[in-house]
Design brief:
Layout (H helix, E strand, L loop, with lengths): L1 E4 L13 H5 L8 E3 L1 H10 L8 E7 L4 H8 L4 E8 L2 E9 L2 E11 L2 E6 L2 E6 L1 H4 L2 E5 L2 E5 L3 H9 L18
Parallel strand pairs: 3-6
Antiparallel strand pairs: 1-4, 2-3, 4-5, 5-6, 6-7, 7-8, 9-10
Length: 173
């Protein structure tokens, strides 16, 4: 895994006054998916999870996706990139102190994969093949679908019960 931190950044909790405006940047990206803790909070709790430190977005990986993201989101500060075997896996940007974390999901057979510094993330492609729109108090956003199944796969069968810790990175592998 080739990771480069382009700027110094801190993983502070989201500023709830700024995060909704930064989340709207997702609409600039073709075929994005709100994912991870961002989707969990917006779908389960109706808001960002208190203490979460970033906004999580997935995109489907393809040749040149990193250049597309640098161009599309270039108005934000690029703070981190991650590559595995020459393929981009992560780009993270920062806007007004809020981290906008974009994960590239690459199709391999019936799965989508991302290899990053936390290990191999593998999830059934069916969730990305059937996206849904979720309505939030911040607007409508695209998500892997069906959302309940995606969240159960990713966080386990008790995903609807908030915890006081981040726990393991993911249930998906």
């Amino acid at each position: 895994m080739d990771i480069k931190n382009h700027r110094l950044f801190r993983m502070d909790p989201l500023d709830m006054d700024i995060a909704p405006g930064v989340l709207k940047q997702a609409h600039l990206i073709d075929d994005y998916f709100v994912s991870g803790g961002t989707l969990l909070g917006l779908y389960r709790d109706g808001d960002f999870i208190a203490g979460d430190s970033d906004i999580d977005i997935d995109v489907i990986g393809y040749e040149g996706v990193d250049d597309y993201l640098f161009k599309t989101l270039g108005h934000m500060d690029l703070i981190r990139t991650g590559y595995f075997k020459g393929r981009p896996m992560q780009t993270a940007f920062q806007d007004k102190g809020t981290i906008f974390d974009v994960w590239m999901m690459w199709r391999e057979g019936d799965h989508m994969i991302n290899q990053n510094d936390m290990g191999l993330f593998m999830i059934p492609a069916k969730f990305y093949d059937n996206p849904v729109e979720i309505e939030t108090k911040y607007g409508s956003y695209r998500a892997p679908g069906p959302v309940d199944e995606y969240l159960a796969f990713r966080y386990g069968r008790h995903w609807k019960i908030p915890t006081n810790s981040k726990g393991i990175y993911t249930g998906a592998v």
